[in-house]
Amino acid sequence: MRLLTRKLPWLIGTLLAVSFFTFMLVSLLPGDPAVMILGAGGVSPEAVAQLRLELGLDRPLVIRYFDWLGSALSGDLGRSPMTGQAVTDAILSRLPVTIQLGTMAIVIALTLAIPLAMVSAYFAGSRLDRGISGLGFALMSVPGFMMAIFLILVFAVGLGWFPATGWVPLSESPAGNLQSAILPAMSLAMIELALYMRLLRTDLIDTLQQDYITLARAKGLPNWLILTRHALRPSSFSLMTVVGLQLGGVISGAIIVEEIFALPGVGRLLYQSILQRDLLMVQGIVLFIATAYVVVNFLVDLCYSLLDPRVRYAE
Amino acid sequence: MRSKVADSSVVRSRAQGFSAAARQVFGRGFGPGFWIAAGWLLLVALCAVFADWLPVRDPIDPVIANRLNGPLTTNILGADGLGRDILARLVHGARVSVVIALTAVSIGMVIGGTLGILAGYFRGHFERGLMAVLDVILAFPWLVLLLALVAFIGQSLAAISVAIGFLWIPAYARVARANTLSVVQREYVLAARAMGASTLRILLREVLPNVILPVLAYGLVAMGLVIIVESALAFLGLSVEAPQPTWGGMISEGKRHLATAVHVALVPSITMFFTVLSLNYVGDRLRSRFDVRESNL
């Protein structure tokens, strides 16, 4: 609890700064939003001035910021002048897709990374370890979109197991949903996999040299038990932090992957809003993503301090 | 004492031929993989520099008759959906990747490195303020920030370089700050201060030389990442505009022909993969060679 009261002001400060930065970033984009909405050619200056007044663009920037922040806090991010849809509704309707995609990617990456890293760390320096590390190295040199194209080529065009594009909602058919989500999630997971594996391997090698591991060995515990019970637990905390910090990478990857596979997610919405210069929508989505990122990492940090006895007792 | 040992080893190795002597002086060799990767990088760099003078076809001239022809037919590496020569486009596209990789990493290194050293040396409010700003920048996923920046400053080669360079400032500032923090506590900085050296002199003569190596060592790996970032942007159609070919743009165009002509996407993908892999590999080997902590000095 004391931890919470100490860290909460930091969280609020960061969120305020993030919102201000978002607002400035989008407000400073070139082009008059009013002109853009009405279309470039043949619009009377009066009509533009009228719309500027309606949108509140005639007021000073700082006042507009507090206005926007105030309504954002009550869940209203404005209404897109292009589609007429409320920004909050647009985000919320697409959020499940992105969350499912991100979660699946992280779960796939972790289930592959943990055993591979354990084998690699246990046999550190061996041929097997070098092979696994080399694989991770190669995976890190592949951009997400290239992995997506490769997977489409093999599993959609070649084998025809999964669809190349499209999305089936979970409510419609769970099997179809899984089928349409597996390739995008795999392409996102591969890059994360390499990062997780590399980190966990280094961390585990370090942990395996600790005295209590030697003690566990001396007691005659089987190797798999030492690896899973004694070594993985302390290393899992740094893994957790990296998974949290890497969320930004997952979201960036999701923008591209959703675009390639034509998935109706938040990333694709952002990309298309940028192409259409739908500023209010861009502003709302960027604020949403950045806030989510900060809050999740705050929670990870908090869990870390509560769960890790080394940190807990140091408090 | 030390030089005597070195002398005798050089004399002894001269008898064993040049390669053995080199091994004595420089330590264990890098191995063939390193040299293959370095050679590939050199080739890419040469292509980028001499693209206009190399004996390749016109990268933007569509020859409809060659449309989607495979490798080793009318064109050495095949032709794309408009009948343009893929080899020529790869060579000219290398220019974009190389220029952006070099400028973006330099921008991040110089601005981020300077801020990091100043923060690590002066501490106090400046350090806390800078770290807070960096935290805020890092709260935005890189592609989100990049898309917004590119919408703001345009899609010219210079604009893209600056936008990607901006992304690297936080990372470099952190590396430089961490290294400065450990350097500042050393005795030689204290000695310089005791001798009455000015702050500027301490920063330039004592701190900078000791911080610059770990910062530079990060450079090649960072370039690999910059190439990935640029290609992602090009894939989304937001990097340097047509007709200038880019590797990411070529892969994006090739995606349309996956079912009929795989090579259109595959050839640029393989080229880019080897380039980034080489940068990672060479960068990693050089870093472990020159990293003071790892090479038991």
Short overview:
Chain A has about 325 residues and is an all-alpha fold. Chain A has helices at about 1-25, 35-40, 45-55, 60-75, 85-120, 125-140, 145-160, 175-210, 210-220, 225-245, 245-260, 265-275, 280-305, 310-315.
Calculate Rg of chain A over CA atoms: 24 Å
| C-alpha-based Rg of chain B, rounded | 24 Å
Oligomeric form: heterodimer
Tally of separate helices of chain B? 12
Number of strands of chain A: 0
Percentage of residues in helical conformation of chain A: over 70%
Calculate the terminal CA-CA distance of chain B, rounded to whole Å: 17 Å
Task: Round the mean pLDDT of chain A to the nearest integer and report it.
Answer: 81
Content-based structural category of chain B: mainly alpha
Beta-strand residue fraction of chain B: under 5%
Element pattern of chain B in H and E: HHHHHHHHHHHH
Show unreliable segments of chain B: 1-15, 292-297
| Low-pLDDT windows of residues of chain A | none
The outline of chain B comes out as elongated
Number of helices of chain A: 14
Number of DSSP strand runs of chain B: 0
- Give the helix/strand class of chain A: mainly alpha
Task: Please characterize this protein's 3D structure.
In chain A, 78% of the residues lie in helices and 0% in strands. Chain A has 315 residues and is mainly alpha-helical. In chain A, helix 6 (127-140) packs across helix 8, helix 7 (144-158) packs across helix 8 and helix 8 (174-208) runs antiparallel to helix 11. The mean pLDDT of chain A is 81. With 297 residues, chain B is an all-alpha fold. Helices cover 72% and strands 0% of the residues of chain B. Chain B has helices spanning 2-15, 18-26, 32-50, 86-122, 124-138, 142-153, 157-184, 187-194, 199-217, 219-235, 247-254, 263-290. The radius of gyration of chain B is 24 Å and the shape is elongated. The interface between A and B is large, with 45 and 39 residues.
